[in-house]
Each structure stands twice: as structure tokens, then as C-alpha cells.
Amino acid sequence: MTSTAPITGMTGPVLLPTDPGYDEARSMWNGLIDHRPGLIARCTGPHDVAAALAFARSAGLEVAVRGGGHGVWTARLEPGFLLLDLAALNTVEVDPVERTVRCGGGTLLADLDAATQAHGLAVPAGTVSNTGIGGLTLGGGWGWLSRLYGLTIDNLLSCEVVLPDGRVVRASDAENPELFWGLRGGGGNFGVVTEFEFRLHPVGPVIQFGMVFVEQARAAAALQAYDELMREWPASVSGGIACAAAPPAPFVPAQHHFAAGVALVLAGFGDPAEHAAAVKAAAERTAPLFAAEAPLPYVALQQMLDAAALHGTRDYTKGLYLDAITPDVAAVLAEWTGRRSPTAQLLAFRLDQAISAVPDAATAFGGPRTGLAVAIEGIDPDPAQDAAERDWARGTWAALRPYATNAGGYVNLVGDLENALVDDVYAGKLDRLRRVKAQYDPENLLHVNANIAPA
Ligand SMILES: Cc1cc2nc3c(=O)[nH]c(=O)nc-3n(C[C@H](O)[C@H](O)[C@H](O)COP(=O)(O)OP(=O)(O)OC[C@H]3O[C@@H](n4cnc5c(N)ncnc54)[C@H](O)[C@@H]3O)c2cc1C
């Protein structure tokens, strides 16, 4: 049962703190976020979003938007704000002939993948299936398919957007092109996207998976080798580096479960022989604890990391971009990943191939379309360890900062909104983004994000 809290014009339910289901509805993936909205507006379409935004403006309420709820941000909001919940906007419609898909602004990747893979198609998106397409796309969107087909935004054809003033508009290259430019990387700064339309590509249904794992004692040499190997891969082979415990997966020898070390993770979308050659080359070069490869359904690849990223994870993330893992960088990485807790991790993926083929100015994506994006994730289920995890993430970031090409990092992996280096993230694009913000959200109603101040 839900309350009948009066938001004029809303057809979806509105939850108050006293309503059943409130605690579940306010919870986010990141267990560090424990905020208490005064109202949760569960929107069923653009009309509901417009009504909720109008209500917030007239009542002077702060507004936060929840797409998939997977944001790593940990901003502290004063109790009583309005949470605009898009979870019900999750319809996915595939056009297999045109190879396009339209999905609601609150769709989870699992639902998008299931619908598109039914036709042997896919759009590049993230690597954990309960992530929302909303936040992921608006920040850029990197996934296993990105070396082949680009970032998620590089496959975005159009959006339906509710602007802060309540107007419902479309954004594409043809309609509101400046808004469309800003939405592709500028986060949720300009409006609430109620529908995304993407270009699709033939993928799978079976792809190749591989992992090479070197123990922590030899991390520095392995990390340097991994970075060199990734640059040699054909576009059909994709993947990244995970400085994390070896998973207790069937392909990992039991004696190495939870071993500390550094992994090179590979996904092959082309000729299986190309993928096998990449795994073999990495194993020969690094003499790993173990190396494994196997065919895998694409949908299983997309869900493989879900178990390591459960709802409620306490995660403090910082990020930056590096050009390469030089010997100096490798030494810093080895030292700091050697100090991580068993549950913390550092991830790095290369921005190259199809990602680099898109001109930097074509979208508002924050950061270079080259080099390595790094995410430093302090994670521990025990709240008593929150400070230690935060300090580790901050310490690792500070040690890497002298080598960074952009210290702000990939905007989707900026956890500390209070200290977000927005100017760094969007270096070179900030003036244009501020003008778009001034045009579409001059009052900065949508500010619970890596916030761009209106010009
Ligand atoms: C475990 C984990 C794995 C991840 N893996 C990847 C990965 O492989 N690749 C990658 O690129 N990123 C990855 N990310 C980062 C992820 O892209 C971001 O956390 C993203 O913001 C999540 O989107 P969401 O809609 O689920 O989050 P939310 O917390 O709901 O939203 C995040 C931000 O986006 C805004 N927003 C969301 N939806 C909309 C909308 N429809 N309209 C307007 N604004 C909206 C929100 O206001 C908020 O500011 C991962 C994050 C986690 C926690």
C-alpha cells in the first residue's frame, strides 16, 4: 500500500517515510548511502516526472534522480528531499530489422541484454547486470564491447528528456543537438531521460572468456606486461585489469581461490583463435598462477561480476586516467594494491580502438578517449572499516595523481561528489557544458551529480 501524498498530476505512487516499502525504495546499491527522502515519486512516464519536478520546484525541495540506483556517489543529502525513482520506466522494445532498441530511463542492463540477445544483438554497456542504463549512459558507458563498438554514448541515437521546467523534448543529432551533445557524458545535469534509443550490433550469443592471474609478489612486472598486451590485442579482444582477490569460480584452481594478485580479464568477440592466442601470449609473458579460457554466453559474461557487486556494497570509489603503466606507475600500483583489504579492488581498462575513433569533441564525455581509466574501490562489508577503505582509496589516488593525464577520472566512477574534480573531469569542455546547463537547467535543480554550474 502506498500513500496518496499529493503531487498534482502524478499517476504513479508516492511514498512517504511512514509507508510500507519506503526503506526498500530509498536504498541504493552503495551501502554507504543512507539518505532519507521526504517523498519518493515512483514515476510511470514523462508526465509523472514533469509533475514531480514541478512539485519540487514549487515546494522548494532538493531533487535527486534514481535510475538503476547503482551510482557510486556518496553525497550527503539533507533529509526531506524528493527522490525521483525511475525504476518503473523499464520497458525494452527491440527493432531487429533496423537494429535499434528503445528502453525506459530506469532500465537495468540485465533487462536490456535479455531483450536484445533474444535477437542476437547487443549495445555496449556495463559489466554488472543490475546497473541502470540511465546513469551509465549519461556518464559515457564502458563495457566489454567498447573496443569493438565504442562507448554506450557512441551508440546513442536519441533520448526523450523531461527538462527541469517540465517540457518533454527529444534530443538527437537532428533535434536539440546541443542538449544531445551534453547528455552524452555530462551526466544527469540537463534533464531526466525517460527513454533511450540505441544502435545495436550482432553479438554472440556465445563469446570467449579468459583470465590470467599473477600473484601479488610479482604484480609490478605483470601490470606492465598486461598494459602492453592489451595494446597488442585486435579489436575483437577486449578486457581489462583487476587488482583483486582471485574469485572462487569453477575455472580457478581451488588452492588459488581468494589469492591476492592481479588479473588480466579477456573477452573475445571474434575468431576464437584470436582470443586463444591473446590468452596464450599473456600466459607466456607473465608465468601466472593460473590461466583459463572457455566459451561463455554473452549474457553470462554480462552477469559474471554480479555476485561480487551485491546490493548494499559499502563502496568508496575514486578514479583517474593514466596514459600507460610505466615502470614508475607499476611500482606505485604494486605498492598500493599490496596494501588493499581482501575486498577492495583497483580496476583499469584501456580506452582505444572504436572508443578512440570517435572525435573527442563529438560528445561531452569527460576524460581522454585514450589511455587507461582507473577505478580505485575501497570496499568492506563492515562499517567499522569505512574510514580505512576511504583512506586506502584516497591514498592510492594521491600516489597515482602525479602520473595522471586527468585526475578527475571517469565521471561514473567518482564516488566523492563533495570533492569531485568536475573541472578536471570535463577539462576543455566545461565552458560549453556550462552554456548547455544554463539553457536547460538555469536554476540547477538537477545538482545531485558531478555538478556543472550554469554559465
Ligand atoms: C558494481 C558497479 C559496476 C560498474 N560497472 C561499470 C561498467 O562496467 N562500465 C561503466 O561505464 N560504469 C560502470 N559502473 C558505474 C556506473 O555506470 C555508474 O555508477 C552509473 O551512474 C550507474 O547508473 P544508475 O542509473 O544505476 O545509477 P543511479 O545512482 O540511479 O544514478 C547515477 C546518476 O545518474 C543520474 N541518472 C540516472 N538515471 C538517469 C536518467 N534516466 N535521467 C537523468 N539522470 C539519471 C542520477 O541522477 C545520478 O546522478 C559501475 C558501478 C558499479 C557500482
Automatic annotation (TrEMBL):
> Where's the FAD-binding PCMH-type domain?
33-203
- Taken from the record, one Pfam family name reads BBE
Q: Which domain of life does this protein belong to?
A: Bacteria
Instruction: Name the Gene Ontology molecular function terms of this record.
Output: FAD binding; oxidoreductase activity
Keyword Secreted listed? The answer is no
**Tagged with keyword Oxidoreductase:** yes
Needed cofactors: FAD
Record key words, sorted: FAD, Flavoprotein, Oxidoreductase
Tell me which family the UniProt entry assigns to this protein: Belongs to the oxygen-dependent FAD-linked oxidoreductase family.
Return the protein name: FAD/FMN-containing dehydrogenase
Source organism of the structure: Pseudonocardia oroxyli
